[in-house]
Amino acid sequence: MKITGRIAAALLTCAALFTTTIGTAAAANLDEPRLKDIAMQIVSSAENSSTNWKAQFGYIEDIDDGRGYTAGIIGFCSGTGDMLDLVELYKTKKPGNVLEKYLPALRRVNGTESHSGLDPNYTKDWKTAAKDSVFKAAQESERDRVYFNPAVKQGKADGVRALGQFAYYDAIVVHGDGGDKTSFSNIRKRALGKAKPPSQGGNETTWLNAFMDARVWAMKQEAAHEDVSRIETAQRVWLKAGNFDLKTPLRWKVYGDSFEIK
């Protein structure tokens, strides 16, 4: 059959659409349920030395990082405002709950490492609240609103797959996204001085290496975060292996401990 110019053009268009569809289908995003659970496990390995993130709703302690109490599935802190937001949400969802009485104290200690008005029973009451399905749902809701969803959204905008989106998510978890020099936005801005993300025509490996380099720099600005194994012996290992979709099995080390997801 003779292929005319019009038919050839139509075939090329179909081929392009097919390639685009296949490429989109093949790209893994972190908000897929299975990958989201994997992301929670990896973060929990660093935050709680366990991949069992669902066992961390009742976790609470002061880790001496200047942020007061650190608690829950994502490390909500009494000194950084996210714990206050969480407890306020819990009040909205369940008025009269066991943590509501601490709201005035949480407002006072916000921005400090103080436990004033929280001790001696706050940790005990937090663990009591953590048995409540309403509080668990509130923790997951705030985790997604403040950390997970913004990371995935920016990752998709930058054209990076699941690994890159996870690198963003882990950075926001640790550094937040405020105005200080080590915040997520400024880590990304620092990386932009070295490379371009795929959405701007850059190479994904080159871009993620630049982002991880900037993240390592940010980690080393604080004594509490000077161990950068959560990047170098986890994220960077998968990047070197070209595992952009976080395909299992995954093996990594963080803070001296070894982990695996089969």
Kindly describe this structure.
Pfam families: Glyco_hydro_46 (PF01374). InterPro entries: Glyco_hydro_46, Glyco_hydro_46_N, Lysozyme-like_dom_sf. It comes from Lentzea miocenica. Keywords: Signal. By secondary structure, the protein is mostly helical. Helix content is 54%, strand content 7%. The protein contains ten helices and five strands. It has helices at 5-26, 33-48, 82-93, 103-109, 122-129, 133-158, 162-175, 184-192, 204-219, 229-240; strands at residues 60-62, 69-71, 76-77, 250-254, 257-261. Strands 1-2-3 form a three-stranded antiparallel β-sheet, with helices on one face. The longest helix has 26 residues, at 133-158. The chain is globular and about 50 Å long.
How do the helices and strands line up, and which of them pair or pack?
Elements: H1 5-26, H2 33-48, E1 60-62, E2 69-71, E3 76-77, H3 82-93, H4 103-109, H5 122-129, H6 133-158, H7 162-175, H8 184-192, H9 204-219, H10 229-240, E4 250-254, E5 257-261
Antiparallel strand pairs: 1-2, 2-3, 4-5
Helix pairs in contact: 3-6, 6-7, 7-9, 8-9, 9-10
Summarize this structure briefly.
With 262 residues, the protein is mainly alpha-helical. Helices cover 54% and strands 7% of the residues. The protein has helices at residues 5-26, 33-48, 82-93, 103-109, 122-129, 133-158, 162-175, 184-192, 204-219, 229-240, and strands at 60-62, 69-71, 76-77, 250-254, 257-261.
